[in-house]
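Record 1 of the preview.
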Amino acid sequence: MANKAKEPKKGSDKKPNWFVRRWQSFKSWTHEMKVELKKVHWPNRSELIRACLAVLVCVLVIGVFVWVLDGVAAAVINALLHLFKG
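->
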């Protein structure tokens, strides 16, 4: 008597259709996204301006550095070509 197998309830072995599962997945994703976005530290105007200026300065410095290296490399290559060209 104690070994009686439980009979499954009628209709409980069915899983929701594809559209219902996708909708539930989408609702879960949007909820998690809202929770995570509430944790984000959004910068105020002065922090944003300072960060943008820092990025612009870095881009300019790296750009000038690459420009100078390109000029040096071009000069070296031209010198080598004229040297071996004769």
